[in-house]
Specification:
Blueprint (H helix, E strand, L loop, with lengths): L28 E4 L4 E4 L12 E2 L2 E2 L3 H13 L3 E2 L2 H15 L8
Length: 104
């Protein structure tokens, strides 16, 4: 049975805790402590391809983000803290830098 249809289930769909009373896992950046890996839900994009910002923070697609966040939590990820998000952004910008052109 799909747990979304069973509201009395202890494993309520899209919730971080198994008591069914916690708030839904929000879209955003998630961190897996054992693997030391980050993952991010679908970000909303501007027409030019940049991430849309709201109040200086990245904006995420709500519908797909809730589903992705739930899936990330089920495989061991947890919402990243503010310090972890800063570390993730720093790693991401470092890897996004263009490589030096090779000289012939």
């Amino acid at each position: 049975m799909d747990p979304r249809n069973n509201r009395d289930s202890k494993q309520e769909y899209n919730f971080g805790e198994l008591d069914g009373k916690a708030r839904a896992n929000e879209p955003g950046v998630y961190y897996h402590p054992q693997a030391d890996k980050f993952i991010e839900t679908s970000a909303a994009l501007n027409p030019d391809g940049t991430v849309r910002l709201a109040d200086g923070k990245a904006s995420y697609f709500r519908e797909t983000g809730l589903i992705q966040a739930d899936a990330f939590v089920q495989v061991g990820y947890r919402p990243a803290t503010d310090e972890e998000v800063k570390r993730y952004r720093a790693q991401k910008s470092e890897t996004a830098k263009a490589p030096e052109p090779t000289k012939k």
